[in-house]
Description:
Strand content: under 5%
Distance between the termini: 87 Å
Number of helices: 17
Number of strands: 0
Shape: flat
Mean pLDDT: 80
Amino acid sequence: MTAPVAWVVATGAGFGVPVSARTWRCRVRTVPAVLATLVAVAGAALNPGGDANPASNRYQVLAAAIVIAAAGPAGAVLGGRLRAGDVTASLSFGAATVPMLAAPIMFGRTGSVLVSATVAAALLGVAVVPWLPKLGAPARIPGHLAVVSALAGAFALLEACVGIARVQTLPVALLLVAMGFLGVAGQQRSRVAAGIGVAFGALGALTFFYRADIATLADQSEAEAHLGLSTALSAFAGLATLAVAGWCARRIGLLNRESEATVLSVFAGIGGLYAVTALTVSVGIATGNRNGFLAGHAIATIVWMAAATAALLYGLRRLARIPQRAKVALGAGLLVTAAALAKLFLFDLATLDGLVRAAAFLVVGVLLLVVGTRYARAFGDMDSGVRSA
Length: 389
């Protein structure tokens, strides 16, 4: 199993060679070392306890993967200093990280999480160096190398999340990571970090939906069997992620055009409504109350209508000053109002008990009255202004 180490010692100095004449030789040197180490990783993973693969061999393979991965950024940095536009060295570095990303499968749960977390910290550390004033200038890490390192580090972080979290807590872990990347993306106005954050958010949303799908939310027995505190935390993390994503989208300029803002608002509104419903129903069930499921759905309907009312009032107040944002808010408010009324008449009317149903109808009716009055006043003021003009 020492063959990968020999490959690294023999050819590692050539990784990322910046001279254009050696570009293809760089690739040729990288690929055999990577393939040999991957074969060793697969062998150690498939037969971890056999005589041919004692525990020491796993650490030898891990050492080979570390040396291969460490040789990549050094050559890529040197190559970037001489030829900033040459991405060959960074691509070679990306290939060199593959054995390190595969290495966790050789170990148990604790060992794999430790390896993945260490690799993620190292790779993401390389990616953020250009943003640090005191380190970015002397290091002179090319932008393409930072992107490759960020992508590889994100994959290692995903491995760590999957390894450390259970099925119930995996959505929370993924959504917290998504919030971190989106927060950094908004602060640095980085579309790469935003894309990674969106990817983690999508994975978190999918795992959350697997736990709390529509059928589970609609059926009381299924909801009581599968929902609880963990899904409530996941739903809350989803709402927080949507809020951070909206701030990030505004910072990187995705909300400057009305069409893009409208599309993003629609998707965010749908996700937010679903997360609110899952949150209230899960909290109701987690309380242990017999009517927790019914109360959760009633509260969800009220929250839907309250959010719609807030969006409509926001849009009406700013219709004359900021017409673009006002139109987006009005459109979102009308869509949420329609969704709340549809839920009220199609689901709540047939499912909720008499008192809970009456409370939901009463609150929604009051909010509709408030919005209707404000709408009439706003358009009445507009007609008065036109006539006076």
